[in-house]
Amino acid sequence: MRRFDLAPLYRATVGFDQVADMMDRILTDTNTAPSYPPYNIEKTGEDAWRISIAVAGFSDEDLNVELRENALIVSAKRPDQDEERTYLHRGIANRAFERRFALADHVRVSGAAHVHGMLNIDLVREVPEALKPRRIEIATGDTVDAKAVEAE
Questions:
Q1: β strands within 90-141, DSSP E
Q2: Is-above-0.85 flag for pTM?
Q3: What are the residues whose beta carbons fall under 8 Å from the beta carbon of 151, sequence distance 6 or more?
Q4: Which residues contact 70 (CB under 8 A, 6 or more apart)?
Q5: Domains and their CATH numbers in the chain
């Protein structure tokens, strides 16, 4: 696989470290990326998403969903119960895992539910009022009275 050197990007920009780190993560070899457990990401609204993770065999107590520094971390730990069992064929992966999802600014987790072996995590983007676009009213005449009006 071709490897890109992002050093010039670090030298020529200030404050874009997160973008460069994200590009570096995306461009790494996907063959080494974990594939367990399988998951879907769907867009449920203009500023809403749902991450669905197949966690069959895990109970609510085994699962942990944590939000830390713009990263959603989903993990599961299983106590070893297979010592007394003898398998002739073992095709169901019931092993511990940790899956990380990078979240954009102002994206928060609005809820999580574990239903029928699927862990559904709902996300929503909520931009603070101070960062929303504002329309500046233009005054006529010699006086400047700056007045911000909310954009519609």
A1: 97-102, 107-115, 118-125, 134-137
A2: no
A3: 132, 133, 134, 135
A4: 102, 103, 104, 105, 107
A5: 1-33 (no CATH), 38-82+90-126 (2.60.40.790)
